[in-house]
UniProtKB/TrEMBL annotation:
Residues 32-66 form a coiled coil. GO terms for biological process: eye photoreceptor cell development. It comes from the Eukaryota. Belongs to the POC5 family. Keywords: Cell cycle, Coiled coil, Cytoplasm, Cytoskeleton, Repeat. The gene is Poc5. Transmembrane segments: none annotated. GO terms for cellular component: centriole; photoreceptor connecting cilium. Essential for the assembly of the distal half of centrioles, required for centriole elongation. Acts as a negative regulator of centriole elongation. The lineage of its organism: Eukaryota, Metazoa, Chordata, Craniata, Vertebrata. This is Centrosomal protein POC5. It is found in: Cytoplasm, Cytoskeleton, Microtubule organizing center, Centrosome, Centriole.
Length: 215
């Protein structure tokens, strides 16, 4: 009977360790998938910013050609405006990269903490089972039930902690998306302001040309 109970306990221990290892591997794979998706979104966003920068460069080149014969003050003002717009786009790109890197580092740190905590929990369970095996026979059933309840409580606590942290990371990611959307909106507004300003400059130039031709 003692050998049979020992075999059952060893089997129970092996099953728990196997389950913990599988849980750890699944958790790491899940975080790797999240990080890969985040890298893909980051690459897409960087590509969009690069396209916007190329468009801005082309627009700057066109403006330089079109205003080459205009008043010197207008040329200086327009050039400064375009340089500010380029600086703003560059700042947006750098801020986005920093934000994504920050979120990624937080995710990796949390994944490492979860893995270390699970390893320590499994080691504690192993020590507990070894200590329990040397106790008297009459206490084996009671200790086994206590261990099972404690393991369930630890698993539930770890699950709750993970879900709470995951919710925080999701909320942080949503805030990052909101900030990026706001920056895009501000960039669109700035582009509209520049277009209106250029229209006004063109109209002023045409009026000046008309006056000069009249003279």
């Amino acid at each position: 009977l003692t050998n049979f109970i020992t075999i059952i306990l060893l089997t129970f221990q092996a099953n728990i360790l196997t389950e913990l290892k599988n849980w750890k591997l699944n958790l790491i794979q899940h975080h790797k998938l999240q990080m890969r998706q985040e890298k893909e979104r980051h690459a897409t966003h960087v590509k969009q910013l690069q396209n916007e920068m190329e468009n801005q460069k082309e627009l700057l080149h066109t403006y330089e050609i079109s205003i080459s014969r205009k008043d010197e003050v207008v040329i200086t003002t327009l050039t400064k405006t375009l340089e500010k717009q380029k600086e703003r786009v560059e700042l947006m790109r750098r801020f986005t990269q920093w934000r994504i890197q920050h979120v990624k580092s937080k995710q990796e740190e949390y994944a490492n903490k979860i893995a270390d905590r699970q390893y320590r929990t499994a080691l504690m369970k192993k020590v507990w089972v070894a200590w329990r095996s040397i106790c008297e026979v009459k206490w084996k059933d009671k200790v086994a039930r206590a261990c099972q309840l404690r393991a369930e409580e630890v698993c539930v606590q770890l699950t709750n902690d993970y879900e709470a942290r995951l919710a925080e990371l999701i909320a942080t990611l949503e805030q990052t998306k909101t900030v990026i959307l706001q920056l895009h909106n501000e960039a669109d507004q700035s582009e509209n302001i520049i277009k209106e300003f250029l229209c006004a400059v063109c109209a002023l130039s045409q009026e000046a040309m008309t006056i000069l031709q009249g003279q």
